[in-house]
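Protein Churchill: structure tokens wanted.
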Amino acid sequence: MCRACVQREYPDRGKTCLENGSFLLNYVCCAVCSKRDFVLITNKAIEEEDGEEIVTYDHVCKNCHHVIARHEYTFTVVEDYQPTPLLALQLGLVFNTQSVLPDDPRQMAPLF
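Answer:
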């Protein structure tokens, strides 16, 4: 991971988890070419192990392909929810849970 490309290591982003994006607020510029542009996702791989999906990918500079950060997160279902922890230099630690049901019971208003 390139510490020169980001403002802060492991920033606190609350529950924001971007599966196909990047946290550009923490991205200063590429330490190699000094350009600040969108970053690309490369080397994405998904493996299954004991009922969990392990997803890994790299964020690289769009212009010179310098590796800015490597990411890894797991995907699993626990009691109708998907806990999704993600720890990465550029992204920080994020822990999010989403319902696997069509309607999230946590979001439903009480009937009475």
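Residues 81 and 99 are 4 Å apart (CA to CA). The beta strands are 39-49, 52-61, 67-75, 81-88, 92-99.

Cheers.
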